[in-house]
Design a protein that fits this description.
The chain is α+β, with helices and mostly antiparallel strands. The protein is about 45% helix and about 20% strand. A six-stranded mixed sheet has the order 15-14-11-18-16-17, sandwiched between helices. The protein has a four-stranded antiparallel sheet with strand order 4-5-3-6. Strands 8-7-9-10 form a four-stranded parallel sheet, with helices on both faces. Helix 6 packs antiparallel against helix 7 and helix 7 crosses helix 10. The longest helix has 22 residues. It is flat and about 95 Å long.
Length: about 550
Amino acid sequence: MSLKRIDGYTFEKLLRNGLNNLKNYEEKVNEINVFPVTDGDTGTNMFLTLQHGIYATKSNESLGDYLQDLSAGMLLGARGNSGVILSQIFKGLAESLKFRNSVGVYKLSRAFISGYKTAYQAVIRPVEGTILTVTREGIENIKKQIDVKTPIEKFFSMYLAEIKKSLANTPNILPQLKEAGCVDSGGYGYMLIIEGMEKLLFGEIIKTNNSQNEVQQPTVQNLGSSNFNSKSDFEMGYCMEFILQLLDKKTSVNPFEEQHYKNKLLQLGNSLVVVVSGSNVKVHIHTKEPSRVIEASQLYGEFITFKLENMQLQHNEIMNAKPQMPKKPIGIIAVTNGDGASELFKTLGCDVVIDGGRTMNTSSQEFVDAINSLNADKIIIFPNNSNIFKAAEQAIKLTQKDNVCIIPSTNIAECYFALAMDVADMEDIEERYNNMLDGFNSITSFLVTKCMKTCVCNKVVCNEGEYVVIYKGNPIASVNTFDKIIEEIKKYDFVNEKENCMIFLGEDAMHANREELEDIICSKLDGVQVDFLEANQKVYNYIIGLV
């Protein structure tokens, strides 16, 4: 029997099957990442982003309500560029299907169009041959073939087939993919999600083990008598949200007029939002008299969904959580891994140091929490990895704070020199910020890491087991000794103008005598002053900063 409509319960089942399918191929998605080093984490980022959204969302028969909560969860859980883009796709779906209890194939196909368009809008410079292309071509190539009679199963089969076709063509669009001999990893991850959804429609339930990267189900909130008890004040009221289904039997007696209904509710509360969609009425209101709001609404219909939250309890929990931090001119957030780098940044004045884990998989939620923990006139974020810029940007949007900015550091050396230029007791906030920006801009950095697979990247033959030297995000050489690393760096003329060389030693740095390493550097880079720092960063054996 063909499926003609899809509701929230069904979509959740399909999506969980898609999540399991992605999980089973997570490492494969990671491995086909173009870059031949151990920071290939596209599969992990996409998996954790989608998993966070699913686990943060309660089952709901209403498709629109389910997608709204799913989207919110994914936005907060988004990790890496691929995770942020995936969260934007589902944000587009959620916006398109708002207030829809269930939809047929036509509305569903239009929602996927909204999904890819939202993702494109979120990327400042969209690159074709990526997940963006795959999501766009997948739906655009079949939209004219869809009509109201098309079964949901057929739609997903057609959509999946076009996604696979678009994915296979990504190397012909993006030269880096052709050079590396692989398809786009983000597009591949998205294909796996849709494939898992399609398989369930045809009866295939995908199982997976949850031994790795598991995000725990959110625990039930502990309300606690200390936050709201018999002696508490009640000034904040309730937050009410519901969808009212208008009923003919009631509206024939009490005709529903939107403005009249709004005026009635405005007498009972504030922060009112009323949206009418067909015979459904979506309402948000803050009130101390929920029973009167219910009474006024039941004159016209009955509730499909209903949520009532004690805002005084929420307010008390926030106020009791921790004392307000003293106000300061500038608050600084930095992401790193390795206990050495973490302690170094704290010494240099960082207020919050986020442990990004081995591959710096920092979520938007972690940035939101860090931002909200600071009480400062200006908050500066150092991502220290280009792959988490978008998670940081998304967090800033979610907090809706206009005093937060990003200095786009791509590694800990850039962050170190920026912080070293800060003068904490300087009164002028913008001058302090500009000093840090000058420090960030003054450094040239090279990253050195083990090559995990033999491939060609940026026209450089990278051999498995050798050391890849990376400059401005691209491999410039694959070598097997430290002196050859320095020889490759010396090929850049501007290096001869540098006076200081700072070596950040990773947890897997070659166990050579520091004096020996210093001798190698000084013999090849005339007159340079060399310093070493035990940062213990993961992935990169050495991060070499020159100023």
